[in-house]
């Protein structure tokens, strides 16, 4: 489980520790007005400042440390970024741990390949496969409908995977899967499957050149279909998965994700089952062991340090201006800089000189983010609604949820967390913050935190308690926790941890990991990767690409990071090749009947 190269704690970390230990009296007022000299460059071009400690930053630090680089990670909040779990303040009693909260629930589709590889390389006591051994598979998914029978879809509904994925075999398998959604006219299911087959057999040039420009709503002809078709196959898929409205969501992004999931369910290109979660709070099962392992490789962490600016001279980044936990500004120097912050924060550090050195960075200003934020409900009785995720299809706020305690084997929720009265946790993601709710008639951004909690609870009850069975009751509700990154209830609602969304044309504005500045590299879920979706997998793959670019830049002989692309069915490659000819001739895909 160790690294592939020798590692040691770098000079950059020691210098940072000295600077961080200096008090205000020693620094004087001048240090606040101008950056003070902090960590310096090590000889030999081996020091790297990783700016951001989310999944992308931790991955980059991991790969670099294994190759002998001296790495310091600067993180504004806490390692793990949006993927971390966090303690609910004031919730621990009787020697228990605090209740676990989170930005939003984590799930790990089986089509992820790069992130699972990293997890296997993070030691975890008792697990031969490291933190990867803490993944637990779900067995089904539920579509909760308001005023309709809820639909439970086991992941085995596709049946025995066909030995050959011909278009006809795919049509039969996919028709059976989407038939299970219920209440969609058969002819519309067949049409939808036909549209997917157009995607499956489209060449890469058509996917990028044509389908990236077409909204998902238009691609599947939702406007001419039934309300159930629109709700289940158009709106639900886009808003609840990629937080983008179906009317504007890129067909390329939505279809890429759906293709990977369906191949996974058919047993192709899979690391594991289609839907997996962790068997403990994220920090316990993954992030904390990861940070410990990185420290053992010599990585230094500066938590509470936020990046304010990048300085450039002679065509290279010479320093990063950061604000330390005391509020003082410091100058961080290193041989190389890996920007691993979310796009809305990263682009704020690219001043005019940096943008002039790489004009392509300006395209990132066109990338859009939106709110997809979590709230947890702690319950006094076990409430495993389903052994998997619930998509509350008809909820105005586009809610998805999962009952977590059922997966946390070896843990007694009530005995281990909180005050002993809470024994379960429903973790919920809210993807729509700009539509009125059912309780107050206001958008989530217009509500107070208390009102958001009540509204989300009411929307979940509306979908789960409408068929004569009381799944959720107010008497079981112990407490709730809303992501602290959200500030609402005032005239200017803000969210410090937003999600990249994917309206049409987004792909053209996503940058590569290598920039035109030779010692600046980008990683994060906004960087262009094969998965084409704002995910932990995309962040991990982008970090690997950034490290590979750095290795190329310095002429390193170290082994390059492996980057596993999404699965491609070999049976369909001939059809894609034929489609490329048709695309060059200006013809439709052979299966595209309009």
UniProtKB/TrEMBL annotation:
Annotated InterPro entries: Amino_oxidase (IPR002937), FAD/NAD-bd_sf (IPR036188), TAT_signal (IPR006311), Zeta_carotene_desat/Oxidored (IPR050464)
Gene source species: Streptomyces netropsis
Leader sequence segment: none
SUPFAM superfamilies assigned to the protein according to its UniProt record, in alphabetical order: FAD/NAD(P)-binding domain
Protein name: Uncharacterized protein with NAD-binding domain and iron-sulfur cluster
Pfam family, one: Amino_oxidase
Amine oxidase domain location: 55-550
One GO MF term attached to the UniProt entry: oxidoreductase activity
Upper classification of the organism: Bacteria, Bacillati, Actinomycetota, Actinomycetes, Kitasatosporales
């Amino acid at each position: 489980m160790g690294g592939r190269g020798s590692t040691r704690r770098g000079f950059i970390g020691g210098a940072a520790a000295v600077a961080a230990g200096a008090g205000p009296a020693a620094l004087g007022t001048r240090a606040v007005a101008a950056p003070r000299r902090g960590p310096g460059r090590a000889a030999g071009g081996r020091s790297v400042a990783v700016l951001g400690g989310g999944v992308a930053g931790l991955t980059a630090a991991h790969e670099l440390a294994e190759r002998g680089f001296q790495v310091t990670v600067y993180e504004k909040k806490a390692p793990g970024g949006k993927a971390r779990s966090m303690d609910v303040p004031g919730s621990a009693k009787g020697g228990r741990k605090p209740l676990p909260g989170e930005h939003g629930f984590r799930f790990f589709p089986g089509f992820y390949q790069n992130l699972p590889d990293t997890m296997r390389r993070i030691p975890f006591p008792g697990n031969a496969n490291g933190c990867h051994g803490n993944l637990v598979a779900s067995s089904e998914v539920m579509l909760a409908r308001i005023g309709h029978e809820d639909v439970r879809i086991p992941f085995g509904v596709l049946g025995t995977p066909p030995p050959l994925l011909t278009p006809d075999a795919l049509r039969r398998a996919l028709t059976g899967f989407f038939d299970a959604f219920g209440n969609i006219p058969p002819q519309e299911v067949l049409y939808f499957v036909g549209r997917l087959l157009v995607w499956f057999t489209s060449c890469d040039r058509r996917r990028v050149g044509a389908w990236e420009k077409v909204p998902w709503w238009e691609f599947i002809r939702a406007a001419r279909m039934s309300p159930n078709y629109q709700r289940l196959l158009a709106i639900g898929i886009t808003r609840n998965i990629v937080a983008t409205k179906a009317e504007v969501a890129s067909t390329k992004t939505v279809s890429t994700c759906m293709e990977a999931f369906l191949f996974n369910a058919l047993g192709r290109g899979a690391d594991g089952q289609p839907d997996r979660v962790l068997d403990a709070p994220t920090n316990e099962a993954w992030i904390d062991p990861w940070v410990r392992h990185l420290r053992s490789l010599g990585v230094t962490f500066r938590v509470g340090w936020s990046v304010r600016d990048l300085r450039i001279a002679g065509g290279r980044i010479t320093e990063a201006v950061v604000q330390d936990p005391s509020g003082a500004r410091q100058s961080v120097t290193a041989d190389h800089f890996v920007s691993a912050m979310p796009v809305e924060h990263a682009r704020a550090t690219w001043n005019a000189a940096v943008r002039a050195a790489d004009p392509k960075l300006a395209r990132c200003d066109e990338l859009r983010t939106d709110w997809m934020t979590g709230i947890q409900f702690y319950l006094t009785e076990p409430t495993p609604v389903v052994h998997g995720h619930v998509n509350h299809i008809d909820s105005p706020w586009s809610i998805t949820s999962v009952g977590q305690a059922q997966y946390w084997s070896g843990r007694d929720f009530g005995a281990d967390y909180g005050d002993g009265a809470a024994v379960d946790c429903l973790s919920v993601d809210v993807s729509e913050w700009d539509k009125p709710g059912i309780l107050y008639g206001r958008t989530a951004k217009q509500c107070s935190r208390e009102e958001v909690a009540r509204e989300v609870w009411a929307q979940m009850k509306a979908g789960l308690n409408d068929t004569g069975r009381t799944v959720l009751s107010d008497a079981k509700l112990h407490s709730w926790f809303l992501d602290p990154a959200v500030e609402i209830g005032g005239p200017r609602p803000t969210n410090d941890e937003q999600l990249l969304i994917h309206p049409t044309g987004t792909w053209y504005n996503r940058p590569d990991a290598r920039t035109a500045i030779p010692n600046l590299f980008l990683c994060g879920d906004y960087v262009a990767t094969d998965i084409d979706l704002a995910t932990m997998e995309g962040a991990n793959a982008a970090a690997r690409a950034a490290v590979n670019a750095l290795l190329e830049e310095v002429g390193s002989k170290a082994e390059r990071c492996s980057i596993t692309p999404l699965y491609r069915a070999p049976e369909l490659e001939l059809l894609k090749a034929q489609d490329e000819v048709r695309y060059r001739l200006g013809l439709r895909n052979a299966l595209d009947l309009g």
